[in-house]
Amino acid sequence: MAVSRLRPAPRIEGADPTDPDVEALRASARIVARMEVADAVTEALNAYAGSLRDLQQASGLDPAFVSKLAGGKVNKQGATVASLAQIALAMNKSLKITIE
Predict the structure, then answer these.
(1) pLDDT per residue over 8-59, tens digit each?
(2) Rg (the chain; Cα; Å)
């Protein structure tokens, strides 16, 4: 799995959260999150012995949603931790989230 690294901007006491640098950081974080989820879901799907239909039946998630996650094409909101946990549990795997 690819590891992306974001370097947070230095904290400035009293910084305005609408500052363009904060918005740029948020936009970058959304892109990195989408890429990380896509990589993780793709890797898990490649190792999964079943089909997307099997996964849908086990998880209750729409196969198109899982496919979009793997392709990094989910909507702006992205996946929830709960939906990722559903995928992991349906595959008989665990979900691990780390901040390094």
Answers:
(1) 555 656 666 666 688 888 888 888 888 888 888 888 888 999 888 888 889 9
(2) 16
Burial class (CB in 10 A: 0-12, 13-18, 19+), 65: middle
**Would you give the DSSP letter of residue 20?**
H
Helix (H) or strand (E) holding 42: helix 20-47
The Cα 84–Cα 90 span in angstroms is 10
Token pair 């909507």 is found at: 75
Q: What is the pTM of this model?
A: 0.67
Residue 7's contacts (CB-CB under 8 Å, 6 or more residues apart) are: none
Tokens coding 31: 């892109």
The residues near 48 (Cβ < 8 Å, ≥ 6 apart) are: 55, 91
